[in-house]
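Re-run requested by the PI after the first attempt was lost when the workstation crashed. Everything re-entered from the original request form. Ligand of interest: adenosine-5'-diphosphate-glucose.
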Amino acid sequence: MATPSAVGAACLVLARAAAGLGLGPGRGGDRARPRRLQRVVRRRCVAELSREGPAPTPRPLPPALLAPPLVPAFLAPPSEPEGEPASTPPPLPDAGLGDLGLQPEGIAEGSIDETVVVASEQDSEIVVGKEQARAKVTQSIVFVTGEASPYAKSGGLGDVCGSLPVALAARGHRVMVVMPRYLNGTSDKNYANAFYTEKHIRIPCFGGEHEVTFFHEYRDSVDWVFVDHPSYHRPGNLYGDKFGAFGDNQFRYTLLCYAACEAPLVLELGGYIYGQNCMFVVNDWHASLVPVLLAAKYRPYGVYKDSRSILVIHNLAHQGVEPASTYPDLGLPPEWYGALEWVFPEWARRHALDKGEAVNFLKGAVVTADRIVTVSKGYSWEVTTAEGGQGLNELLSSRKSVLNGIVNGIDINDWNPATDKCIPCHYSVDDLSGKAKCKSALQKELGLPIRPEVPLIGFIGRLDYQKGIDLIQLIIPHLMRDDVQFVMLGSGDPELEDWMRSTESDFKDKFRGWVGFSVPVSHRITAGCDILLMPSRFEPCGLNQLYAMQYGTVPVVHATGGLRDTVENFNPFGENGEQGTGWAFAPLTTENMLWTLRTAISTYKEHKSSWEGLMKRGMSKDFTWDHAAEQYEQIFQWAFIDRPYVM
Ligand SMILES: Nc1ncnc2c1ncn2[C@@H]1O[C@H](COP(=O)(O)OP(=O)(O)O[C@H]2O[C@H](CO)[C@@H](O)[C@H](O)[C@H]2O)[C@@H](O)[C@H]1O
Ligand SMILES: OC[C@H]1O[C@H](O[C@H]2[C@H](O)[C@@H](O)[C@@H](O[C@H]3[C@H](O)[C@@H](O)[C@@H](O)O[C@@H]3CO)O[C@@H]2CO)[C@H](O)[C@@H](O)[C@@H]1O
């Protein structure tokens, strides 16, 4: 049996929490029914007690997590041509694209690199280890996400949520990640080490009570918590299948958010619950109901008063928008409708009688989260502009004082050419010889002519409008006249997948289109290519250019968002000699892109020592998570200085 005190504490907080949860989705108001709810909750706690398994062996906790709070958190002070193309290419059109490559200005308050002295009720010991830097103040952190690698990944969100929590745990924080337990019949083995916790909760939404259970794995000092429900068990990818996005995604991620709010209160992980004093880090729209729930359904009942929430925006293109008529399904009190209220502009409405009324999950978090972080500084400015704000620019501008940008890091355990298990030869900045072997192995694997002297260009990414693949389509007939090789790895838009296949058959000796999702292939392309092309229309951060630089592969990118923040333009006439790690071009036009690519290609072919300098400067950059983790800690501290969001 679990220790009585821990279970008692869990029941108490669960009782308080569920007093706010309500049991019905109607607009009748939960506040009118607290007594009945308390009774139901007490029964639930008793039922849970009888299900308790053997007491887990408690893991040691950081001292701060055991110490009782002394003062309320808000009182803490601030602290050459080979073969001809199939046909003569048409003239290059101007892409006619809005360019976001403008100069950022006026974002948020001071630099997050500034040192702020924070006195708090939590651990204030400064521990600087020899190998691993430790946090000045440790927190209980709860990440909520739709994906985290290696369990489930559809793109960069999965990378970040699979590695930032580990970096924060290594710095002394207690960290939990809450995500769905996706079972699709092919990658189910990813969850093989996650065990059933015997915890069940019933979530009042969508016209009934929906039971979810929790699975758990403790790995890399992080509590990985998987929410289990039949709606997460189906073939396809995480969010949809060949017919498009799943029709019940709003329901699936509503469940995730409710479950994530309960997990710190009910799960004894390593023997202890996380409790009410948490830092919720909610990622993208899938997790965006969490801050709304905290404000609408917990704090009014005295629960989570000392917790804070941070919204991390990885991509404003996905906001979780559904018709306004779905609001009652969410189980939120009617007076909270305004937090999620969203009206489409007239041009975006479907017919004359369409009033464009909708609910928008991401907007709900923009309104109610205590702080907002975007995944690069550049993007934190772009989201406040009409061009980059995807309709949320005015709202985000109104929250500038709590909006910051932190460039993502990369997991060098996974992405390191000296140790990478997916690549055929290892290499480093001190010995680049293995890279040439990776290139010839890749050419062989792809069935391309094995020619060390020909520049091999790569693209890796989701086949999505965001990534500018239509621009690649336009330049390919021109580029294929040059002596180059080009490999693309991607999946997504079926028309673009078909184009990749047909282009491969048009240019058999020069172009490969690898349709599908393969992490090992992505590593081999990153290591084997000379140049990585990223013509993204917008890019909140971008990870592939970081991986490329780490592997001595020179990025050619559109100067936007995180790409502009991380790729330094090649300057052969720098003050201290040659400078830069790649090429960042703007505006985004096909002519500009082709010209920049050809500049890179001629540098590769004719200026070998300059090329080696580009490679080595990129490989010497420190893209590890530690610096970003430190900046997140600063945001956490700022969040705890302010009072939490209340209506
Ligand atoms: N077919 C395929 N096979 C194998 N691997 C594939 C693949 N297609 C993509 N990937 C992998 O998915 C990841 C893509 O990450 P990005 O950050 O470049 O873009 P994404 O738009 O998904 O992420 C969003 O979130 C991240 C994280 O914050 C931001 O960096 C980014 O700007 C934002 O758009 C990389 O690890 C890449 O290798
Ligand atoms: O890590 C890669 C990206 O993953 C997330 O984006 C997904 C998005 O959140 C899902 O909702 C879904 O998007 C579909 C969208 O909802 C729907 O209206 C339609 O446009 O189709 C979209 C594709 O199915 O899938 C997205 C991934 O493809 C995350 O939010 C992003 O930050 C990440 O870049």
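Saved to the shared folder this time. The pocket of adenosine-5'-diphosphate-glucose (ligand 1) is lined by residues 155-157, 159-160, 314-315, 375, 408, 460-462, 489-491, 517-519, 522, 539-544, 562 (CB under 6 Å).
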